[in-house]
Amino acid sequence: MQSYETLFIGGEWVKPETGDLIDVISPHTEQVIGQVPDASPADMDKAVAAARKAFDAGPLPVEERAAGLSRLSAALQARGEAIADSISSQMGSPKSWSIMGQVFSATMVLDTYAAIAPTYTWVDERPGALGGRLQVRRAPVGVAAGIIPWNVPLFIIALKLGPAMAAGVPIVLKPAPETPLDSYLFAEAVLEADLPPGIINIVPAGRENADYLVRHPGVDKVSFTGSTAVGKHIASVCGEQLKRVTLELGGKSAAIVLDDVALDDALLNEMVMSGLMNNGQVCGAQSRILAPRSRYDEVVDALADKVGALVVGDPLDPATHIGPLVAQRQQVRVEGFLEAGKAAGARAVVGGSKTEMETGWYITPTVFADVHNDMKIAREEIFGPVLSVIPYDGEEDAIKIANDTDYGLCGSVWTADVEHGAEVAARVRTGTVSINSSMILDFNGPFGGFKQSGLGRELGPEGIAPYTELQTVILPPA
C-alpha cells in the first residue's frame, strides 16, 4: 500500500479540506494498492490561489526557469525506477515501456524546454507600419490548469509543465484518479529541485472536481489530454468563459504499408510497437494497418506471427510485452469491440477475447483481418491491444482510407523508398506522420491533431505559444 494524506500546494504538503479518498486499484491483482485524498473545491481554491500568488510575483529570469527545468529533470531521473514501477502498478504499462515511454521520455521533454527557453524569441522587435517601432512580446498567459490522463501520466505532466515553466506560467496539475500515486514521487522531485512555491501544485481528484478546476475563475488557460468526448465538454466551458485551451484528444491512426516494403523482423517489430505500445492504450496508436491487396495475406500472416509471440502478463515482469488494461470497465469495453468486429465479419487471426488469467483485466493481443473501414473497429478508438488490417487498391485508395476518419492525430508510412513515403505522408491529414518508425512524436516538433483529435499543439518551440499572450508595445521612432 502507498497511502498519502496530503496535497502538494504552494510548495508544501497541505492537509485536504475533507476526508474523501481515492482508492487506487492494481489492474493485475485487482486489489487496492494505494489511497490519496480526493481534492475538494476548497482544495482547488487553495491550489489556484497559490499559483496566482506565484504568478503575481512575476516570472523568474528565463535562465533561472531553464535551470529549474534541468534540476527537475535530474531529480526525476534519480527516481526513475520507482516512478516506472508506480505507473506500471497503477495502469498496467509493461515495465520496459514505463522506463522509456513514461519516465525517460518525460525527462527528455523537460530537458528539451530547458534548452529551448533561453533561445526562444520572447520579444520580437520590428519597424512599425506608421514610422514607429514595435516590440511584440510573448507574455505569460496567467495561471494554467493541466488535466492529466491515466495512460501516460508523468509524460503528459511534462508536456504541460515544460512549456508552462519555460513561459513563466504557474500550473495546477490534476492527476487522473486511476494514477495519482506517481504524482507524489513527482512532487518530491519538485521539492528537491528547489522551485519557487506555487509554480507547481498537484491536486488529484475525480471528474466532478476536475470540472470545478476547469471552470475556476482564477484559471486563465486549460490544457487537457484525454477523450474527445470530455475534450468537447472542456472546450465548451472554455468557450463560454473565453478561456485559453489546448486539447490533445483521441485518434484512430493508420499505418500505410506500401507495396514495395520489405517485411523484415526489425520493421515488423516497429509496426507492431506502433499499434500496441502501452497495451494499445496510446492516443496515437497505429491501430489501422492498411495493406496493398496484392500483399494482404502476407502482411496479415506476418503481423499475426509477431503479435501471437508477444508475452502477456504481470506488467512488472521485465519479460512482459503486454500488460493488463487500466480498469475492468476498459476490459469490458474492449471485449465489446472484439465482439462487434466478429459480428461485422472481421476475422480474428490472433486473439479475439480476454485472457484466461485468474486475475487482472487482460485482453489477448488481437489481429483482425477482413476489415472494412466502415466497421466499428475501424471507426472508433478502442484503446486496447487490437490491430485491424484493411486492404486497399492503389496508393490513392490507401490515402482515401487513411483520411476517412473523424480523427487526425498520427499516422505512418512503411516503404523501401523514404522520399516517396514522405510524399505520401504529406497527403495524410494528421498532425504527425512517421516513416518506417513507431515514433508518434518528436520532442523538438509540434504534436497535436487535426479534426476531432484536438486543438493546438504541444512540444517543440510551438508548444510554448499556448502558454503566452501576444502583447504589442508601440514605440516612437528612434
Give structural notes.
By secondary structure, this protein is an alpha/beta fold. It has two domains: 2-249 and 452-475, Aldehyde Dehydrogenase, Chain A, domain 1, CATH 3.40.605.10; 254-443, Aldehyde Dehydrogenase, Chain A, domain 2 (3-Layer(aba) Sandwich), CATH 3.40.309. It is built from 14 helices and 21 strands. It has a seven-stranded mixed beta sheet, with helices on both faces. The protein is globular, with a radius of gyration of 23 Å. The model has no long low-confidence stretch (mean pLDDT 97).
User: What's the count of strands?
Assistant: 21
| Helix/strand/pairing category | alpha/beta
CATH architecture term of the largest domain: 3-Layer(aba) Sandwich
Q: Alpha-carbon distance between the termini?
A: 66 Å
Q: Bin the helical content.
A: 25-40%
Adjacency order of strands in the biggest sheet: 15-16-17-14-13-18-19
Low-confidence stretches: none
Describe the sheet with the most strands.
7 strands, mixed
Rg value: 23 Å
Task: Based on the model shown, name its key terms.
alpha/beta; globular; six-stranded mixed β-sheet; 2 domains; seven-stranded mixed β-sheet; single chain; Aldehyde Dehydrogenase, Chain A, domain 1; Aldehyde Dehydrogenase, Chain A, domain 2; 478 residues
Write the layout of secondary structure elements.
Elements: E1 2-3, E2 7-9, E3 12-14, E4 21-25, E5 32-37, H1 41-56, H2 62-78, H3 80-91, H4 95-116, E6 123-127, E7 133-140, E8 144-147, H5 153-167, E9 171-174, H6 181-192, E10 200-202, H7 207-215, E11 221-225, H8 228-241, E12 244-248, E13 254-257, H9 265-276, E14 288-292, H10 296-308, H11 328-343, E15 347-350, E16 366-369, H12 376-379, E17 386-392, H13 395-403, E18 410-414, H14 418-425, E19 432-435, E20 454-455, E21 468-475
Parallel strand pairs: 1-5, 8-9, 8-11, 9-10, 11-12, 13-14, 13-18, 14-17, 16-17, 18-19
Antiparallel strand pairs: 2-3, 4-5, 6-7, 7-21, 12-20, 15-16
Helix pairs in contact: 2-4, 2-5, 2-6, 3-4, 3-6, 4-5, 9-10
